[in-house]
Design a protein that fits this description.
Length: 417
């Protein structure tokens, strides 16, 4: 097959040619936009899921929907080593520009954004207790800062004032603002608390501003630990692997656009290999297309391309993450993989494995069993576990349990390390 015409896109955050299996989330967000625009009460949105299920792609697609609806939008990616203030200021600055108000209301909103942006702790990071005005960093806003608004230095107070003023400005224009936050679980505790408080105030005020976050499966627990009302503040949507029909559509429709087809047994083999995880579907689709001599694509083509697809995943998806771990952390990861394998069912598949899919493992394993596997006390492994949590390689959605953030990571560790 012609590699230039290969329609598949196994890239980080790259939109696949066919966004299959996400109609429910897209339709629900359209309802949110319309309800908020009409002054109806509605919650902000949080998407959760493992790496490689398409959260960032879906987040970007929702942003496009907001743009089509005439909303002002801004996006940021949270980082564990950076406070929320500056990236959020940049995101809402873009949202105000997209709305395009001129004169009094628009200038006031921009002035509040500037005052919020410049009230930053020295060094721009976390853990600084003495905020001061920063003259060296210019947020690119030409109007003067609004003194006494969103510039107290307390992130929760300032963020509530910022989003309230922006929501009021958006209401005056008859439109709305949507702020998109990727990797939301990486926000610091103070920033999470501030964002929840601001979203709560906006919701109570009925202003046309929504926050749309995306993060790992433990994000709801992070939000709940910050503000107990966060369970009712957000509309949570778990983004998971595709079912069989959606996985087939993700392969078949792009191929049909290029005049190619799949044999039924080839689709069976592709689903068995990928388990319906969107990133794996794209990686296998690309490899099989490049290896297949012609249409229809057969199960033999899938078998020939399998080593290339697995090698690509081993290097670009699994290996790059494994390399970030220290030797002690890798030992902990391998122990997790062994415990997960030991708790699969008699057929080699976990109780929740998909029919026809690979032997998926339990979502979480007990930390006590990992320690027992290593012959260590759980307390002695806390530094390695905490470091892996901070690096985003594992997560803990429940006390005493841990899981990989990447699907099939346990299988990779057993096969390649």
């Amino acid at each position: 097959m012609d590699p230039i015409r290969n329609p598949y896109a196994p890239g980080a955050g790259q939109r696949p040619p066919e966004l299959a299996g996400r109609d429910e989330q897209l339709d629900a967000f359209d309802v949110v936009l319309e309800r908020v625009a009409r002054g109806r009460p509605e919650r902000s949105v949080v998407l959760t899921g493992l790496r490689g299920v398409g959260k960032t792609v879906l987040l970007n697609t929702l942003r496009s929907a907001a743009v089509r609806a005439g909303w002002g939008t801004g996006k940021l990616e949270a980082r564990p080593d950076q406070s929320l203030r500056r990236p959020l200021a940049s995101a809402v600055h873009q949202a105000v520009r997209e709305l395009g108000p001129s004169g009094g209301a628009g200038d006031h909103a921009l002035g509040v954004v500037r005052s919020f942006a410049q009230r930053e702790p020295e060094g721009g990071g976390r853990g600084r207790s003495a905020p001061r005005l920063k003259d060296r960093w210019n947020p690119g806003i030409q109007v003067p800062a609004v003194a006494g608004r969103a510039d107290s230095g307390d992130i929760e107070i300032d963020l509530v004032e910022l989003l309230t003023d922006l929501g009021g400005m958006a209401a005056d224009t008859g439109r709305g603002i949507a702020v998109f936050v990727d990797e939301m679980q990486d926000l610091g505790p103070d920033d999470v608390s501030a964002l929840c408080a601001a979203a709560h105030e906006i919701s109570q005020s009925g202003l046309p501003l929504v926050v749309v976050g995306a993060g790992l499966p433990h994000l709801p627990a992070v939000l709940s630990a910050s503000k107990s009302y966060s369970e009712r503040l957000f509309r949570y949507s778990r983004i998971d692997r595709l079912d069989r029909s959606a996985a087939d559509a993700a392969l078949v429709r792009p191929a049909a656009e290029e005049g190619a087809q799949y044999a039924p047994d080839a689709l069976d083999a592709m689903y068995a290999a990928t388990g319906g995880y969107p990133y794996f579907v794209q990686a296998y689709g690309k490899a099989v297309w490049d290896r297949a001599p012609g249409s229809p694509i057969t199960v033999a083509d899938v078998d020939v391309a399998r080593p290339e697809a697995e090698a690509e995943l081993a290097v670009g998806f699994f290996g790059s993450r494994y390399e970030r771990a220290t030797p002690g952390e890798r030992e902990y990861l391998r122990a997790m993989a062994e415990v997960a394998a030991a708790t699969t069912g008699p057929s080699g598949a976990a109780p929740d494995a998909l029919p026809g899919g690979p032997a998926d493992e339990p979502e979480a394993v007990p930390t006590a069993e990992v320690a027992a596997r290593l012959g260590r006390k759980p307390q002695s492994l806390s530094p390695a576990r905490d470091a892996l949590l901070k690096k985003g390689l594992i997560y803990s959605g429940e006390r005493g349990l841990i899981a990989f953030t990447v699907p099939h990571f346990g299988r990779y560790l057993r096969d390649h390390t």
